[in-house]
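Here is one chain, start to finish.
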Amino acid sequence: MRTTLDRFGRIVIPKKMRKDLGIEAGAEVIVEERGQVIYVKPVQEETPLVVKEGILVYRGHAEGDLARAVAAEREKRIGKLRRGLGQ
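Its structure:
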């Protein structure tokens, strides 16, 4: 993609790229120079949560038994639904 620097040396990161990377206004980025290439990399938080298509998504690494944790949460939610329906 080609873009132009403004008179202050700023560029705009395209909206789709910002959305895909979870970068929002005010987010911190790392800017690195390697030879004749400039890299812009988002600063990753300890627990990077982003909203994608209206759903909160965790983009980190899971530890422990993820399948068991998901099953337990699913059963808890099903129990709440059943109690709400009077079953």
